[in-house]
Specification:
Blueprint: H1 22-25, H2 39-44, H3 51-62, H4 71-78, H5 85-89, H6 96-109, H7 111-116, H8 120-133, H9 137-152, H10 155-162, H11 168-172, H12 178-183, E1 200-201, E2 209-214, H13 218-221, H14 224-236, E3 239-242, H15 252-256, H16 260-281, E4 286-289, H17 292-298, H18 301-304, H19 312-321, E5 322-324, H20 325-330, E6 344-347, H21 351-354, H22 361-368, E7 374-375, H23 391-394, H24 396-413, E8 417-420, H25 423-436, E9 447-450, H26 451-463
Parallel strand pairs: 2-3, 2-4, 4-5, 6-7, 6-8, 8-9
Antiparallel strand pairs: 1-3
Length: 464
């Protein structure tokens, strides 16, 4: 027997997918250091709602001791936000995010889970959202246009006044929370972000870098102004900006929700799109992202496609070029021609920036460089706001409990501006400001902005 050739352990619970490695699944030493960093454990005090408890459930499933359609298994795994704060706390290097993604992927492939753990409405919504909406830019644009018309024509106001979204019929078809979800809809106040026909925006200052912008699905529709500000900030920082038309959603929401196959398809599509951009414009120094959740997924394309011989090396090369906008700017001698911004700002660390990408200092370096801006650190700024992709849709009640605690921390700062670097956080915090009544007792209303918007405002102030 050749003891140097050890066959990898194949867990009996993983019959539809490859599953995680034995080493990854058994790395937890049960120390409990993750517990107080887990939002759901802090809310419930239940071991099964902690990373340690969920790892035990995942291992029991992997070893064939828990059935795929066990309602408690699915309940506890689905209540996880996948914020990955446990990874920051873990002394053993448990890859919790990858473990739960692969476990949910296996469960999603099981017919018994689709039949017993979800009703028809839930399965239809999953198909619409994860297969027809986010992955397809043309559908996202139609959704954005429809949402804008709904808000600007008075239809939204009429719907709310008449209570149409609180009718009993919604409960009967499994959409009892639709009124609460509609309240989370961000204002679509401007047209959807559209790259120039040339796919190219030249540097406004002496050109030193050639970068590409990953424009994203949600950012292009709900926060188009942030993408526009990102382009302006990059061109002021010595960068030609390439914006490939062919790019699509990064696949993060699919991967986090057990649709890994389709997430891999989107990864391949994006790799092709950005390689084509390099052939057209020359080698890219970086691929810039302004959405933390997307950024962490893009940086993990190499792992996502590790078993794809045609794409693995290309995916790793792509991932190595990905930089969060704050990471890129703080890593160069960024343009400091800022004007004054008289603002008190607190910063909310997006989970997939601080925990998944381990980026904490760069956003603060940039904010502190703006004259007049007073950065007030928030207690527990590294704790999740409860957005977590579509978690505030699928687990609304727990999401709101976590959000309410976050808004208490925001109120303590007295800041008039909340800055973050992720669209989900942005939309959730906007809801939190309304939900908490934070503006009712303030002369200056609290606004929620993306970090790059503050940089853009400061550059514009410097021109006056």
């Amino acid at each position: 027997m050749d003891f140097n050739q050890v066959e990898p352990v194949k867990f009996p619970g993983f019959v539809m997918t490859d599953g995680p490695s034995y080493d990854d699944m058994t790395r937890c030493i049960h120390c409990g250091l993750c517990l107080q960093n887990c939002p759901t454990y802090r809310e419930t005090g239940m071991e099964t709602e902690s990373p340690r408890g969920r790892l035990y459930l995942m291992r029991s499933f992997a070893e064939g001791n828990i059935a795929a359609d066990n309602p408690n298994l699915n309940k506890h795994l689905n209540l996880c936000l996948q914020c990955r704060a446990c990874e920051t706390a873990c002394p053993s290097g448990v890859k919790y995010g990858h473990l739960i993604e692969k476990t949910l992927d296996e469960l999603n492939h099981r017919p018994e889970v689709q039949e017993k753990q979800r009703n028809l409405t839930q399965n239809v919504i999953r198909w619409l959202v994860f297969r027809q909406l986010f992955p397809k830019p043309q559908n996202m644009r139609l959704f954005g246009l429809g949402s804008r018309l709904y808000q600007r024509t008075g239809l939204q106001s009429l719907t709310r006044k008449m209570g149409l979204l609180k009718l009993p019929v919604w409960d009967k078809i499994g959409l009892g929370k639709i009124g609460d979800l509609e309240a989370m809809m961000p204002p679509i106040s401007q047209p959807i972000f559209t790259p120039p026909e040339s796919e190219f925006v030249p540097a406004r200052t002496q050109q030193r870098y050639r970068v590409a912008l990953f424009s994203g699905c949600i950012m292009s529709v709900a926060l188009a102004r942030v993408n526009e500000a990102t382009v302006r900030v990059l061109t002021r920082n010595y960068s030609d900006v390439v914006i490939p038309h062919a790019q699509s959603c990064c696949g993060a929401l699919n991967i986090h929700n057990g649709d890994r196959d389709y997430g891999q398809e989107m990864a391949r599509h994006n790799i092709d799109a950005f390689e084509a951009a390099e052939e057209k414009f020359g080698e890219l120094d970086a691929i810039i992202i302004n959405a933390a959740g997307c950024g962490s997924t893009l940086k993990e394309y190499g792992q996502l496609l590790e078993n794809d011989p045609a794409y693995h090396e290309r995916a790793a090369r792509f991932a190595n070029k990905v930089r969060d906008i704050s990471e890129f700017l703080a890593g160069i001698e960024f343009n400091r021609d800022f004007g004054r911004l008289e603002k008190t700002v607190t910063y909310q660390d997006a989970c997939h920036l601080i925990h998944a990408q381990r980026i904490s200092k760069p956003p603060r370096v940039l904010l502190k460089a703006i004259p007049g801006l007073d950065l007030i650190e928030m207690r527990d700024s590294d704790k999740c706001c409860g957005s977590a992709g579509v978690y505030n849709v699928t687990q609304y009640d727990m999401s709101m409990r976590i959000l309410d605690h976050k808004m208490e921390r925001v109120a303590e700062t007295g800041a008039s501006c909340i800055a973050s670097g992720n669209p989900g956080c942005h939309i959730q915090l906007q809801l939190g400001v309304k939900r908490s009544g934070l503006n009712e007792s303030r002369e200056e209303p609290v606004e929620v902005v993306h970090l790059v918007e503050l940089l853009d405002q400061a550059y514009r102030a410097g021109e006056k």
